[in-house]
Amino acid sequence: MWIFPRSGWAASAVALAFLMLDLSGCGRGSDNLPREAISGEVTVEGKPLKSGLITFLPDDANSPTQGGGVVVDGKYTVPRDQGLVPGKYRIVISAPEDKPEVVDKTNNAPGLPPIPGKEVIPKQYNSESILTADVKAGAKNEFRFNLVSTPVGK
123 and 80 in contact (C-beta within 8 Å)? Predict the structure, then answer.
C-alpha cells in the first residue's frame, strides 16, 4: 500500500513519477529485460527526506532502462518488474519545499494546480548531480544517500 503526503506538489510528483516510468517503458513485466529491484534511503543532514523523487539515469546511452520512485519518510522502493538493468546510473534527487509558490489568480487559468515550491535539494544532487549507483545482477541493490548542504569540496 502506498501512502503519500497530502500536499499539492506531492500529488504532482507522484503523477510525474508514474508518467516517467510509463514513458521509459518501465512497469511492463513482459519486456524480458534482466531487471533488478532497487531500494534505499535518502537523508538530508542525517534526517530522512520527508518526501521527494529519486531518479536513476543510465550512464550508458545504450542502456534500455531508467527509472526511480517516490521518496517518503526517507525510503524508496522500485519493484523488480519496474526495476533497472544492471549498470551504472547517475542519481537525481528532487524535493520542492512544502509550500507551493503563490500564483497570481488574475493571470492563472481557473482550475490549474498551484506551482510546486522551489527546489530544496542542492543542485549537486539534482541538476548537477554527483551521485552515482552501480546496479548489479542478483545483488541486493540497496542505495543510501546522505545529502549535505555544504557544497562538495568546500
Answer: no
* Residue 77 phi, psi dihedral angles, 5° rounding: -145, 135
Contact status, residue 38 vs residue 84, Cβ threshold 8 Å: yes
| Domain membership of residue 141 as a residue range | 8-147
Q: Tell me the per-residue pLDDT of 64-86, one tens digit each, with 9 for 90 and over.
A: 889 999 999 999 999 999 999 99
Q: Does residue 153 fall inside a structural domain? A: no
CATH of the domain at 120: 2.60.40.10
CA distance 143 to 56: 11
pLDDT band for position 21 (cuts 50, 70, 90): very low
Rounded distance between C-alpha atoms, residue 9 and residue 116, angstroms: 5
Neighbours of 55 (CB within 10 A): 21
C-alpha cell at 108: 492563472
Instruction: Return d(Cα 135, Cα 126) in angstroms, integer.
Output: 19
3-class state of residue 31 by DSSP: coil
